[in-house]
Design a protein that fits this description.
- This protein has about 300 residues and is α/β, with parallel strands linked by helices.
- The chain has eleven helices and ten strands.
- It has a six-stranded mixed sheet, with helices on both faces. A four-stranded antiparallel sheet has the order 8-7-9-10, with no helix packed on it.
- It is globular.
- It holds the Pfam family PAPS_reduct.
- InterPro entries: PAPS_reduct_dom, Rossmann-like_a/b/a_fold, SO4_adenylTrfase_ssu, Sulfate_adenylyltrnsfr_sub2.
- Its EC number is 2.7.7.4.
């Protein structure tokens, strides 16, 4: 029994070795149980770790799944460029579906031109799942990010409407995972669910993984708005009564420009980021994701509607 032997050797493995072995096991379970999975790859740090884990799980062969990105059309260009370059270097198939495509089809209708497209990714993701017939989507969500994600299973079942019911989840006793589903249903698999933000950064350091430049401290024009630092871009301009200042900031998480805020930081190396992360008292999404601050249940509601 592969995983039983891992339990027996747990004390002999380092913390990162153990997390890596668990994640590789989960990826291989997905490949073995699912007929047509996809790996969600945005160019962010968590999905970059997933790519390295997939390499260790399946090389020298090709990945048994394509890479899939649901693009709002409002992502940071540094991240999109990194996404395309990384997929090309790996030689893996990258599928991109855009919220803008859903808007043209009329399946996404914004309340106003300035509304964030982030929550509407759910619609585009469900359309991509139907288009390609995916029965599992592998994501880089972690339980330490947000309380709705903290109660989600590693193999998270979604019904034929793509919805997540937190009261109807499968047991995962003794690290046994059930990724089977009926036609039309879907599994969301989270191999690094048990990792923390600090684990991710330590793994990046150990594996010498490349990252988009905005994860590191840099000068950027910003305003202080509603308790958060808002970057000044063509999508998020300063209001007439706001003072634009240049701050040294970095992004702890990356996503749609309209709802992703940086934090003030001088951490311009991975070593400094690890030291900073070890002492922070605010979760990365709590500090930087403006969409999660809309209400206490914002993330859980989006997940019930089909979000990642």
């Amino acid at each position: 029994m592969f995983f039983s032997s891992l339990h027996a050797q747990q004390r002999l493995l380092s913390h990162l070795d153990w997390l890596e072995a668990e994640a590789i096991h989960i990826l291989r379970e997905v490949a073995g149980q699912c007929g047509n999975p996809a790996l969600l790859f945005s160019g962010g740090k968590d999905s970059i770790c997933l790519l390295r884990l997939a390499e260790k799980a399946f090389r020298p062969g090709r990945f048994p799944f394509p890479l899939l990105h649901i693009d709002t059309g409002h992502n940071y260009p540094e991240v999109i460029g990194f996404r395309d370059r990384t997929a090309a270097e790996l030689g893996e198939r990258l599928l991109v579906r855009s919220v803008e495509d859903s808007m043209r089809r009329g399946t996404v209708v914004l309340k106003h031109a300035d509304e964030s497209r982030n929550k509407h990714q759910s619609v585009t993701l469900l359309e991509a799942i139907e288009e390609f017939g995916f029965d599992c989507c592998i994501g880089g969500a972690r339980r330490d990010e947000e309380k709705a994600r903290a109660k989600e299973r590693i193999m998270s079942f979604r019904d034929e409407f793509g919805q997540w019911d937190p009261k109807n989840q499968r047991p995962e006793l003794w690290d046994l995972y059930n990724a089977r589903s009926h036609k039309g249903e879907n599994i969301r698999a989270f191999p690094i669910s048990n990792w923390t933000e600090l684990d991710v950064w330590q793994y990046i350091e150990r594996e010498k993984l490349e990252l988009p430049s905005i994860y590191f401290a840099h000068q950027r024009p910003v305003v202080k708005r509603n308790g958060a630092i808002t970057p000044i871009t063509h999508l998020t301009p300063a209001k007439p009564d706001e003072e634009v200042i240049n701050l040294q900031v970095r992004f702890r998480t990356v996503g749609d420009i309209t709802c992703t805020a940086p934090v003030e930081s001088d951490a311009d190396t991975i070593e400094k980021i690890i030291a900073e992360t070890a002492t922070t008292t605010v979760t990365e999404r709590g500090a930087t994701r403006l969409d999660d601050q809309a209400s206490e249940a914002a993330m859980e509601q989006r997940k019930k509607e089909g979000y990642f």
